[in-house]
Amino acid sequence: MRSHRLTMLAGLAAGLVGLTAAAAVVTASEAEQPSRPGVSQSAPLAVAGGDGGGATLYPGLVSVHFDRTAAALAAASTKADIGDVTGAGRSVQAARAQIKASWAGTRYLIRTTPPPPPPADRAGAGGDGGGAGYAAPPATAQQFFSIQHDLAAASAGLLSARPVLNAKLVAALQANATLRDRAIEYIHTTEPPAPPPADDSASAGGAPVATTIGSVMPTVVVYLDDEIVALKGTIATNKKVLPADVVTALRSLITKAKATETKINTYWPPLPADD
Q: What pLDDT, on the 0 to 100 scale, is given for residue 132?
């Protein structure tokens, strides 16, 4: 159930994943430093504005958790590489907790942020019309799913013959998948109606402006496609060291990811191929 809509969004997904990976590299050294509860390890992540009008920051309510997730994943990788299995497991648990906190913040923003004004009223007002500002719920939700993808990919990549760490990683993957399905259901049931279009809602650069969370949800399918590849590849390339129970868990996660893709395509059907 693919369309050129997903093909167009693939580039966006790749860019967001690359941004998160870069954040993990930047915060890797910081992850080993003592941290204070509730204090972000780095500056809020920023994305390019939809119309090239400047950087857009994620709201502080969620950016601290996005950053701390990236830092925890980087720490887990570093500790696993030096044989600190216990420390790696704790970092994985920390990342899992930060993902959960980031969804709580994202859900709050979805529930409390008022709908945007008509496109004609937004031009030049610091919103979609240009200038820097904080990301709206659609972009924030998309980043949440992107960070989730990073946790899944990192967890799959750390699986090996170490039973204690494997248990933490499998638990993180399962919790991640469950939270993602809950988020999708929440967005589907609370998504506000789309605002009326104005001049095809095109930005100055000619690209469509995403005005609803539903308009970015097909990008999550791109993340899921890559997650499925990562899980399948982990099974294939580590079949000599992965315990049977881990392989079984990964296959169950693949099945669940495919079901989630079907759900997204049902809730937000892809556009016809000729659109």
A: 53
How far apart are the C-alpha atoms of 63 and 46, rounded to whole Å? 9
Give residue for tokens 């998309």.
142
pLDDT digits over 69-104, tens only? 999 999 999 999 999 999 999 999 999 999 999 999
Which of these ranges, 25-34, 69-78, 84-93, 221-230, has the smallest mean pLDDT? 25-34
Question: What value does the mean pLDDT of the chain take?
Answer: 78
Distance, CA of 118 to CA of 201 (rounded, Å): 10
Looking from the CA of 195 toward its CB, the CA atoms found within 13 Å total 19
pTM over 0.85: no
Predicted pLDDT at 194: 61
Q: How far apart are CA 117 and CA 102, in angstroms?
A: 26
Q: Which two tokens stand for residue 63?
A: 């950016």
- Could you give the CA distance from residue 211 to residue 216 in angstroms, rounded to a whole number? 9
Q: Give DSSP secondary structure letters for the chain.
A: ---HHHHHHHHHHHHHHHHHHHHHHHHHHHHTS---TT--SSPPPEEE-TTSSSEEEPPHHHHHHHHHHHHHHHHHHHHHHTT-HHHHHHHHHHHHHHHHHHHHHHHHHHHHSPPPPPHHHHTTTTSTTSS-EEPPHHHHHHHHHHHHHHHHHHHHHH-SS-HHHHHHHHHHHHHHHHHHHHHHHHHHHHPPPPPPPSGGGB-TTSPBP--SSTTTTHHHHHHHHHHHHHHHHHHHHTTTTS-HHHHHHHHHHHHHHHHHHHHHHHHSPPPPTT-
Please write the tens of the pLDDT for every residue from 171-201.
999 999 999 999 999 999 998 666 555 554 4
